[in-house]
Amino acid sequence: MVFLFGRRPQAAISGSRTDRGPDGRSLWQDARTRFFRNRAAVTSLVALALVAVFALFGDLAASWSNEEIDWSVLGNVAEKGAPSLASGHYFGVDELGRDLYARTVQGTRVSLMVGIVGALISVVVGTFYGATAGYFGGRLDSVMMRIVDVLMAIPYMFVLIIFMVVFGRSILMLFVGIGLISWLDMARIARGQTLSIKNREFVEAAVAIGVRPRRIIARHIIPNLLGVVIVYATLLVPSMIIYESFISFLGLGVQEPDTSWGALINDGASQMQYGTLWQLLFPLFFFFVTLFSFFFLGDGLRDALDPKDR
Amino acid sequence: MIVYLLKRLAVAIPTLLVLIVVSYVLIYAAPGGPFDTERVLPPEVMANLERKYGLDQPLVVQIWRYVVSIVTEFDFGPSFQYKDQTVNEIIRQGFPVTLTYGAWAFAVAVLVGVSLGIAAAVRHNSFLDYLAVGVSIGAQVLPNFVMAPILTLVFTLWLGWLPGGGWQGGQWSYVVMPVIALSTSFMASIARISRSSMLEVLNSDFIRTARAKGLPRRRIVFGHALKPAMLPVISFLGPAFVGMITGSVVIDVFFATGGIGQFFVNSALNRDYPVIMGVTILTGALTVLFNLLVDLLYVWIDPRIRY
């Protein structure tokens, strides 16, 4: 899946840039300069850092734990459970009288973890798979890519749900299930890039001096794929988060007392006719901010790293 | 063309078989059988039940029978949970509902998305363009399970214009929100894709030639640029279709439309395996069929493709 937002004009920057210029800036330095000129991307990076801090250290500021039930508000959540600093429920309470702030911290952790783990699996598996298929080509390539085609044509959400039903709904299974499908796009992208890299001179040179294929892939192909891989990994994180939230929204993902953005949004949505809107809005806010940030970050990274734009 | 079609079918049929086998094996491996109840059944009854549903056979035989009965009789077997209904009956009951608003959502996503994208590209860097880009970025983070509660909040709770759920035989007021909720994020993607591809085409040489000949802009856009610009949109239709089928599960559950997704989630929660598998295979088959159609459409529109 490609999340194109349209391209920003790069002419002004690339005009002053030369690959073998006398000042000898590296590809990565170059990319960094370009990235930090993109205000939206830098803002997103800051926003993501804040969300990460919230997820990691948010519970230090909580005055209630995520499992404690505040009996004093239970039964009248709509009036007494609203967000307030005085009661210590910064985000209010949920329909069971639990502190929504602590629950949101907990859900943010799970959702971010799912996104990052899914992206990591796709980077490791997808890159190697795609690079191998692309490098060897021929029959191996067509068999390997046919497998990807077949897997991609399956409505995986249904299979994922079967998976969760069969093996029990736990966070671990969610990771495994999402990891199983997350690498497919990456494999395709890595293969496409490998096809163009493998005919370059430095690969030819490596072949000529007798380097083994496995070493060529690890030392010459994959490092050159990294730029593209990083860009798509960044764009994969939000789609993984969306998948997870989707399943949890249906009540088929994480199980109580665990929670995630999808589950929190679902809880909030099911209560909104009782005037407890904060239960929907706080999780939604974090969901939006994170997804927006990842999309803009990925967009900025693509402008900075993707060789197709040069 | 025939060779191409056969080649595509050579992928399509293994896809379906893999889907069937994988889901069957997964379910076979699942702890807890379909007849586990709180009261322990005597072993004789259990054996009888298993014999009745063919569950005493080896795995390979079970899968073979299942595939054969689907292929030859289009029979997905009985439901474990709804004792008096077969999976076929459940599908027949829920599927038309899902299909109705799904088709609407698909049409809305494509028509609105493409028009928005083209308008933005033709008036590049105008207010309209920025509006379209802004809308499509915003809608990107509005997947169906977020759109559905927001729509209900605004149109049912605050404004009170539309009913918050139900189907009522498909009266329009019950269809509107499912369609909007399902189509928004795909509309955004289609708008973005068609905008960027239209921009690319409008900057190409043959369009400059057409312009130099003095053709009116309308003819340039619709007569020359539209067809090549639609190619990336068409290749997105496959994933969009899968996304919508998947999304319909959320819509069915949230709006309680009585569609197939509601049965699916219910069965998933109750381990009603035949229904889960039937729905999965049906959607898989639809997806494969649709991808095939999209591929053929692609070849038909793009004469440069050699197959």
Describe this structure in words.
The complex is a heterodimer of chains A (310) and B (307). With 310 residues, chain A is mainly alpha-helical. Chain A has helices at residues 11-15, 27-37, 39-57, 77-80, 100-136, 138-152, 156-167, 171-197, 201-208, 213-249, 261-271, 278-305. In chain A, helix 5 packs antiparallel against helix 6. Chain A is elongated, with a radius of gyration of 23 Å. Chain A starts with 10 loop residues before the first helix and ends in a 5-residue tail after the last helix. Chain B has 12 helices and no strands. Chain B has helices spanning 2-29, 43-52, 59-73, 87-122, 127-140, 144-158, 172-202, 205-212, 217-229, 231-255, 260-270, 273-301. In chain B, helix 4 (87-122) packs antiparallel against helix 5 and helix 4 (87-122) packs across helix 11 (260-270). The longest helix of chain B is centred in the middle third of the chain and has 36 residues, at 87-122. The radius of gyration of chain B is 24 Å and the shape is flat. The mean pLDDT of chain B is 83. At the A-B interface, helix 6, helix 7, helix 10, helix 11 and helix 12 of A face helix 1, helix 5, helix 6, helix 7 and helix 10 of B.
| Bulk shape of chain A | elongated
Spans of chain B with pLDDT under 50 lasting ≥5 residues? none
How much of the residues of chain B is beta strand, in percent?
under 5%
Helix content of chain A: 55-70%
Q: Structural class, from helix and strand content of chain A?
A: mainly alpha
Largest protein-protein interface: A-B, 46 and 52 residues
How many strands of chain B? 0
Largest pleated sheet of chain A = none
The sequence of SSEs of chain A as H and E is: HHHHHHHHHHHH
Low-confidence stretches of chain A: 1-18
List the helices and strands and how they pair.
The complex is a heterodimer of chains A (310) and B (307).
Chain A lengths: L10 H5 L11 H11 L1 H19 L19 H4 L19 H37 L1 H15 L3 H12 L3 H27 L3 H8 L4 H37 L11 H11 L6 H28 L5
Chain B lengths: L1 H28 L13 H10 L6 H15 L13 H36 L4 H14 L3 H15 L13 H31 L2 H8 L4 H13 L1 H25 L4 H11 L2 H29 L6
Helix pairs in contact in B: 1-12, 4-5, 4-7, 4-10, 4-11, 4-12, 5-7, 6-7, 6-10, 7-9, 7-10, 10-11, 10-12, 11-12
